[in-house]
Amino acid sequence: MPIIYAASESTVSIGGTVIEGVRAIEFRQLRARSNLYALGGTERIGIVSGPESVEGKVVVASASAALDAVGAGTFQLTATLRHGDTSKTVTFDECFLLARSFALSAGEHGEGTYVFSAVRVRDDPPPAAPG
Prior knowledge:
With 131 residues, this protein is mainly β. The chain has 1 helix and 8 strands. It has a domain at 21-74 and 93-124. The two termini are 15 Å apart.
């Protein structure tokens, strides 16, 4: 059965301070991998792992003073995903703000978008091993 987290129950914080007005958080963890073949063979016998990168985006209603204040420094971002009694904490370590933008449309409210990179992403509890 899938675990469904509710946006209305979840929080995103920077340095322990909850960011107000979060509308969305997205992240992507990429790991470079290459196939490994035996000499003279055509079937893969393993995988060689290379560098890993983490990029994410936080969208807030209007703007976030906490994220605006980051500047060129590093920060830690924590997303606590909840639904009822189920929760999971996703922590992004040693983040840098890569970009920020603001959009305002007629009949709507403003939205600030903050794009960041992180050294690593950690899940608590960690994902279950397949099998």
